[in-house]
Amino acid sequence: MIDPSANPSEAPSGNAAGINPLTAVACTVIVIAGLKAASGFIVPILTAAFIALLCLPVSRRLQRWGLSATISTFAVVIGVVLLLVILSAVVADSVSDLSESLGSYQSRADGLLKTGTAWLEKMGVDASEIQLSEIIDTKALTGFASSTLQGILAALSNLFLILLIMIFLLFEMIGLPDKLKRALGGPEADISDYTRVTGQLYEYLHIKTALSIVTGVFVGFFTGIAGLDFPVLWGLIAFLFNFVPNVGSIIAAIPAILLALVTGGLGSAALVAGGYLAINTVIGNIIEPRVMGRRLGLSPAIVILSLFFWNWVLGPVGMLLSLPLTMIVKFFLEHSADYQGLAVMLGPADDPAEARPKPKKT
């Protein structure tokens, strides 16, 4: 029974004034389910958004050189279109040739299995009990490779839609700071948090893109020197998967090593594996930590978990964009009065974000 004499100003404090945890969990589940269900719609928009974010500093540099916002934006778009058209043509040609060669590669793989079985029997091992052909199903491997290549071609079919969205987003991003100031109260509004997180995204995307380009060029050059088929394709795959944290370089190396094993034998596979190891050790473990430092503000465990989570929600594109997406989630959590603790849990143990002023509860 409610006491009518109670003072209304003495309201319960703490979590009672915030969001119920069960309600928050339910809302989170609904949002994640919606993202997963709408991934076909969201993925082109996200891809276009991050390409636009990557191109925005180039557009601003052209404006500082005297070009108008419209001309500079269209100049950037034309450059991106030309680059993507060239890459798409190269990839489509390589994928087509590789698809046609899968049958011969399967025959060579079957022959390699027979050679391995004969070697085991020569060493006194009863290979009939091991049944390598069932453990390593070459038809399943070639089928998986074929479906993967078809997925790459399907992704290229969204190129026009991505470019169209990118054009409009690039124009929108140019005036976004002014719109934010007006939305927050006027020209003197504080948007330092917005500029901080966008600065982190700019820096991450630019550094990661530059290092990924270097990785792709070295991998393509090395595989060409090693005599491996389709070196341009392996360089492009290395470029793309270098955006995947920690395990991307391993994923990119596996198909090239398997192809070297099938076409050139164990020695060729060892040579290709050694080349990938050397390139990724120098760039991924020596150069990148020195250049990137601790700018991401994410825990190493969260980096790995976000990789699997976004891949599950959005597919391969989510895997490539897992770090930027997680950085954005952490930014919104930092500015939520109820979930600042979750933002701290996403960051490293000595996250400098904890020293920033926290938003007050209203």
Task: Describe, in plain words, how this protein is organized in 3D.
With about 350 residues, this protein is mostly helical. Among the domains are: about 200-295, no CATH class; about 295-355, no CATH class. It contains 16 helices and no strands. It has helices at about 20-35, 40-65, 70-120, 125-130, 130-135, 140-155, 160-175, 175-185, 190-225, 230-240, 250-265, 265-290, 300-315, 315-320, 320-335, 340-345. α2 packs across α7 and α15 (about 320-335) packs antiparallel against α16 (about 340-345). It is globular and about 80 Å long.
Quick structural overview:
The chain contains 16 helices and no strands.
Secondary structure elements and pairings:
Layout: H1 21-37, H2 39-64, H3 69-122, H4 127-130, H5 132-135, H6 138-156, H7 159-174, H8 176-183, H9 192-225, H10 231-241, H11 248-264, H12 266-292, H13 300-314, H14 316-320, H15 322-334, H16 340-346
Helix pairs in contact: 2-3, 2-7, 2-9, 3-6, 3-7, 9-10, 9-12, 9-15, 10-11, 11-12, 13-15, 15-16
Q: Mean of the pLDDT scores?
A: 76
Low-confidence stretches: 8-17, 129-138, 353-362
Q: Helicity level, as a percent range?
A: over 70%
Query: Strand-and-helix sequence, N→C?
Result: HHHHHHHHHHHHHHHH
Question: What's the gyration radius in Å?
Answer: 26 Å
Largest beta-sheet characterization = none
Which outline best applies? globular
Task: Write down how many β-strands occur, each being a DSSP E stretch of 2 or more residues.
Answer: 0
N-to-C CA distance: 28 Å
List the defining traits of the structure above.
362 residues; mainly alpha
